[in-house]
């Protein structure tokens, strides 16, 4: 009697067949000082200077986007470099842009947001991505003892 092997393949809910579905243009604005751009930097048709244009799909993960940014940003390749992701989107009620943090990744360290997809973050085609890169030395100096203080100081830019 012949044996039958059963293979169960897990399908992601938001998986895209990348061979059949055309990618879209994601406009990414990067700051290397550890702070996000201000939402007002996007108003009245303006955008910040450091723009990357990435062709991707809605099932792209934050880890995938981190890898793409590291390809063009050599200083972000150091272990411990933190990437903080925010979506920038138009407010439908008033003519301004809003910003919402969606997660973070760290070079060389697996984290809970690594596998978060653009779909899971409720990304809509046409939204912008704002990425604040914090060098490893800036937030990780002093070991774990100073971690909370350094992290909180670099999380949001004082306006």
TrEMBL record:
GO cellular component: nucleus
GO molecular function: transcription corepressor activity
Pfam families per the UniProt record, alphabetical: SAP18
InterPro entries, alphabetized: SAP18, SAP18_sf
Keywords: Repressor, Transcription, Transcription regulation
GO process annotations (BP): negative regulation of DNA-templated transcription
Record-stated family: Belongs to the SAP18 family.
Protein name: 18 kDa Sin3-associated polypeptide
The species this protein was found in: Tribolium castaneum
């Amino acid at each position: 009697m012949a044996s039958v092997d059963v293979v169960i393949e897990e399908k992601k809910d938001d998986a895209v067949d990348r061979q059949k579905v055309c990618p879209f243009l994601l406009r990414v604005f990067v700051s290397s000082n550890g702070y996000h751009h201000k939402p007002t930097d996007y108003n009245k048709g303006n955008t910040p200077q450091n723009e990357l244009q990435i062709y991707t799909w809605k099932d792209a993960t934050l880890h995938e986007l981190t890898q793409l940014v590291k390809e063009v940003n050599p200083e972000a390749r150091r272990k411990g470099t933190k990437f903080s992701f925010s979506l920038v989107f138009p407010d439908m009620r008033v003519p301004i842009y809003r910003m919402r943090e969606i997660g973070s990744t760290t070079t060389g360290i697996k984290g809970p947001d690594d596998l978060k997809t653009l779909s899971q973050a409720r990304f809509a085609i046409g939204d912008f991505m704002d990425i604040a890169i914090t060098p490893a030395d800036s937030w990780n100096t002093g070991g774990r003892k100073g971690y909370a203080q350094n992290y909180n100081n670099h999380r949001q830019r004082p306006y």
